[in-house]
Every structure is written in C-alpha cells, then in structure tokens.
Amino acid sequence: MRSPVVWLAVVEPRRVESRTLSEPESKALVAAYGVPVPSEATATNAAEAADAADRVGYPVVLKLAGGSIAHKTERGLVRLGIRTRSDAEAAAAELLALARPDDGRVELLVAPMVSGDRELIAGMMRDQQFGALVAFGLGGVLAEAIGDVVFAPAPLNAADAEALIDRLAGQAVLGEFRGQPPVDRAALVELLSGLGRLADERADVVSVDLNPLIVCDGRPIAVDALVELTSSEEAP
C-alpha cells in the first residue's frame, strides 16, 4: 500500500494480509460512498483506448492500471495531456509494453484531464490502537514534505467532518486562492462523511488513499484512488 509517510508518522496501521484493488475498482467503490471521481473508461488494447479517448473527450490522461500496480508515476505509467486519437493509440501501446509479469492482469484507464491549482488528500486507515480513522490534509506531490494532515475516528457525521476540516493548519488553501473560488465545504463534508461510512460498513477495507483530490471550480475530485482489502475477502 502506498500510504503517505505523513500518515504513517502519526498512526500505526493494523498489520493484516492484504491486497489492493485496481484504480478503476477503487474509484468505483469510493464513488458509491459519495466521493467525486472523473468520468472515465477502461480499455484492454490500444485501439480500444483510442475509442475511449474519443468518447471521453480530449485532452485525456492514460494510465496503466492493475491490482498490483500502486506507484504509476514512479514507474512512468501515466501519460498526460493527450490531444489526438493517434497520440492516444501510441501512448496506449507504450504503456502496455511497460507491463511486467508480476503486474498480473492490467488494463488501460482513460480519463479526462482535471486541472486545478490546489491538491488535497483524504483517506481512511485502521490504526492498531484507535481503530478506523478518516484522514484529510494537503495533498499532491508535497503531501509528505508539508505533513499537514488531520484525523478523526470513523464514522463521521456532518458536524464531525466540519470539525475535521477546521483543524487543518492550511486553511488559506481552502479559501479563495489565485483567483479561484473557495473549496466547496459541503462537498468536502460529504466526501469525508462517505469515507467514514465506508469504514463503518466495509470491515474488509483496510485503507483508502485518495491522493490527489484536485480542486476544480471549487469542487474536490479524486483523480487517483487506491483501496486496500483484507486478502481473505472477495473484491466488491
């Protein structure tokens, strides 16, 4: 699991045998609990990926996804800003060629480019001492360096989620920022409350990592997601 260092410095994850869902599977699960995700498509070959890009609308992002693939960026398994069908087909072929035998079953994820000046992080993990916790903080590539993350026990009601948001040190990032509107707090409350419900209802979910949540027109969107399950449970 790719849990950020900033989380591990504060909590001690429960030690269990686990496996991860692919990014499309992870997003489908969290979306069912109110987490906003982009409208995406999957493909198994380059031609299908090009067709999917045509449907999603350019520019798009292509990723190689699979249950055994967690660190896509570090492995060069992401292609950004693809603007034509031919580029989509070429990028898809490149990504498929990078698959390794230990990746298992892989697929291509085709998603719209989501842009924004702010990145947040949210998630859930099960601590050995405190049980299920919902996390919220500043995200993206600087998440580990900044370390601005706060926790609350799950489940969360709306008031609990509001209080969690208020504890974030970097409140300025949530307000008007570089000419952009403030972050939609109601959307954040729904997202965090949803993670709390997921933790409460799905005992098989060990952890959830939403990093980054890109703020687009004031609304947080989970452009990446990774869900870890106990290995004894079947995928949802």
From TrEMBL:
PANTHER family to which the protein is assigned, alphabetical: COA BINDING DOMAIN CONTAINING PROTEIN, PEPTIDYL-LYSINE N-ACETYLTRANSFERASE PATZ
Pfam families: ATP-grasp_5 (PF13549)
TM stretches of this protein: none
Residue stretches making up the ATP-grasp domain: 27-219
Protein name (Swiss-Prot/TrEMBL): Putative acetyl-CoA synthetase, beta sub-unit
Organism, as annotated: Candidatus Neomicrothrix parvicella RN1
Keywords assigned by UniProt, alphabetized: ATP-binding, Ligase, Nucleotide-binding
One GO MF term: ATP binding
EC number: 6.2.1.-
Flavoprotein keyword on record: no
